[in-house]
DNA sequence: CAAATTCTGAACCGATCAGTCCAAAACGGA
DNA sequence: TCCGTTTTGGACTGATCGGTTCAGAATTTG
């Protein structure tokens, strides 16, 4: 062959993802991406074609890993359904508290992108819709299991409860970006579990 | 004096607000603002100083009117606390369904701005925090009243429930932007009321 | 070592960005 | 009517945007 890459593509993608996550799509310049990844413009355009393509891959990477770990928690049959939901919410609270920039939560790339781009870019919209469907399906499954086992008392249908859970999680993300601290997020999470268990 | 304005400042502000609401701050160009308001660049800069200042005034205008009507609903003592919350959620669902662009909900300027700018611009951050405090205070008041009257069964403290309610509302907004239809939003709202009443 | 191939850095591109400037137009007051 | 003041539209500015180009450095293969 010929001259080999001097960088790790996966690492570069991760750095780019983080930048989009912190600053949003429009506010991230190609210059920002160069600095974050440590690559030159040529290398970036050589490898990722365009800013939009790099964003799409970043978003894909984000949902794969994030939704992946969430689904894994939800499908872990070694603990009862309600407990799995508690673990999920803990995970989210921890994430919001840990992932900050300038002392502020950076939220969730999925939520941020839904707000910034959903409905404006067809590829982004499709990707977000697929991810939402995947998360809702996992939510529904645990909730149904919880209802069958008497773990979850609410008699609303599992789909409605899944949409409710999804909305609360999104709202927690926005709250964190709005300045909510750990105690606040935990209170929201606890109230949400009340709603399902009670 | 001299030559009078050819336009209505309040109307222009409203058009600008709507544009920022639909497209976000960064994605709205000064050209967009000219087209939306019908004003020339000179008139805009003459009247509103800068894009950022115009945005700040737009956000202020939004918050005043939106939070204003919400607080009015919450303080209407002619109906019981839980009923006021139901009315509030109905209002929000209606708003999300009605306010669309390209068949997609445009969400809530407060939520959108929290995601896009909170923590990045100090003036924006302060404005959003003031508005959040105002809404939380109104939420707390109705919830406390509901708890005293036995209308609201949850024994969590009113502040936690207020933060919870705020999060769900934000999440409904994001869900709407993500494509949720009226039935879905209503299901989330109903589940939320369950959580407070049950 | 030499040829073939790929990667890299920097200069460069047209478009668009927010914002400025200015001359002409449009009015009120005298 | 004419002066003073303000508004208005359009041309303009420097900076930055995403993206391209290209010469030369780096590396594998023969």
UniProtKB/TrEMBL annotation, chains A, B:
<feature type="DNA-binding region" description="H-T-H motif">
    <location>
        <begin position="29"/>
        <end position="48"/>
    </location>
</feature>
<dbReference type="InterPro" id="IPR036271">
    <property type="entry name" value="Tet_transcr_reg_TetR-rel_C_sf"/>
</dbReference>
<dbReference type="InterPro" id="IPR011075">
    <property type="entry name" value="TetR_C"/>
</dbReference>
<dbReference type="InterPro" id="IPR009057">
    <property type="entry name" value="Homeodomain-like_sf"/>
</dbReference>
<keyword id="KW-0238">DNA-binding</keyword>
<keyword id="KW-0805">Transcription regulation</keyword>
<dbReference type="InterPro" id="IPR001647">
    <property type="entry name" value="HTH_TetR"/>
</dbReference>
<dbReference type="Pfam" id="PF00440">
    <property type="entry name" value="TetR_N"/>
</dbReference>
<feature type="domain" description="HTH tetR-type">
    <location>
        <begin position="6"/>
        <end position="66"/>
    </location>
</feature>
<keyword id="KW-0804">Transcription</keyword>
<dbReference type="Pfam" id="PF16925">
    <property type="entry name" value="TetR_C_13"/>
</dbReference>
<protein>
    <submittedName>
        <fullName>TetR/AcrR family transcriptional regulator</fullName>
    </submittedName>
</protein>
């Amino acid at each position: 062959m010929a001259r080999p890459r001097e960088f790790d593509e996966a690492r570069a993608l991760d750095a780019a993802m983080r930048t989009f996550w912190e600053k949003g799509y429009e506010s991230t310049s190609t210059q920002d991406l160069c600095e974050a990844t440590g690559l030159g413009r040529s290398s970036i355009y050589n490898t990722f074609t365009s800013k939009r393509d790099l964003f799409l891959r970043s978003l894909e990477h984000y949902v794969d890993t994030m939704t992946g770990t969430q689904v894994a928690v939800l499908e872990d049959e070694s603990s009862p359904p309600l407990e799995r939901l508690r673990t999920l919410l803990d995970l989210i609270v921890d994430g919001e508290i840990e992932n900050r920039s300038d002392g502020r939560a950076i939220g969730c790339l999925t939520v941020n992108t839904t707000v910034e781009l959903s409905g404006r870019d067809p590829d982004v919209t499709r990707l977000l819709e697929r991810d939402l469907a995947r998360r809702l399906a996992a939510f529904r499954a645990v909730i149904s299991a919880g209802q069958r086992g008497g773990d979850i008392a609410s008699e609303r249908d599992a789909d409605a409860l899944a949409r409710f859970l999804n909305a609360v999680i999104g709202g927690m993300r926005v709250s964190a970006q709005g300045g909510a601290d750990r105690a606040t997020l935990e209170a929201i999470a606890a109230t949400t579990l009340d709603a399902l268990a009670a």
